[in-house]
TrEMBL record:
It comes from Clostridium frigoriphilum. InterPro entries: Glutathione_peroxidase (IPR000889), GPX_AS (IPR029759), GPX_CS (IPR029760). It comes from the Bacteria. One of its GO terms (molecular function) is peroxidase activity. Belongs to the glutathione peroxidase family. It is an enzyme of class 1 (oxidoreductase). Keywords: Oxidoreductase, Peroxidase. This is Glutathione peroxidase. Its EC number is 1.11.1.-.
Length: 181
């Protein structure tokens, strides 16, 4: 089984088989509009614009599971992303990304690329780890998604080749993306 075996509904409600992305390098990310990491939309869009013509696709999955940081409708999400960050990459309908109700894509991604911890030498890593330890200690157990803006990198054959936690700036993914392109 690989990424191409799944499907999801685009933010406009149309179903899309992930096999439509065969031959592309993909960044798959769970997103939220009211999160401290929300500005990552801007860097994701920069990366998308720079590398899309070389075969990169970015797909965003809004999620409201983390402190209800994505409370709006799919239409609200679309408008927010376009107005505030000029997002042109594909967004999908809001889904759950962890727990029993997690979308199959994120269950698969979480098992394909294990959680390696946060970089505790970085302020964001230290902060997120501390906050989760205090408020949601169960989130730190296992390989599930820990917070908004967890990013997965998928090669042209549909294999998950990297996991980048929310504290990793999307621009720090560029060298790995360039290798795959």
């Amino acid at each position: 089984m690989n990424f191409y075996d799944f499907s999801a509904k685009k933010i406009n409600g149309q179903n899309l088989n992930m096999s439509e992305y065969k031959g592309k390098v993909l960044v798959v990310v769970n997103t939220a509009s009211k999160c401290g990491f929300t500005p990552q939309y801007g860097d994701l869009e920069k990366i998308y614009k720079k590398y899309n013509n070389q075969g990169l696709e970015i797909v965003g999955f809004p999620c409201n599971q983390f402190l209800e940081q994505e409370p709006g409708s799919n239409k609200d999400v679309t408008e927010f992303c376009k107005i505030n960050y000029g997002v042109t990459f594909q967004l999908f309908e809001k889904i759950d990304v962890r727990g029993f109700s997690a979308h199959p894509i994120f269950k698969y991604l979480s098992e394909a690329a294990h959680f390696q911890g946060f970089n505790l030498n970085e302020p964001n890593g230290k902060f997120l780890n501390s906050m989760l330890k205090e408020k949601f200690p169960e989130y730190l157990i296992g390989n599930s998604i820990k917070w908004n803006f967890t990013k997965f990198l998928i090669d042209r054959e549909g294999n998950v080749v990297g996991r980048f936690e929310p504290t990793v700036d999307p621009l720090d993914m560029v060298p790995k993306i360039e290798e795959l392109l």
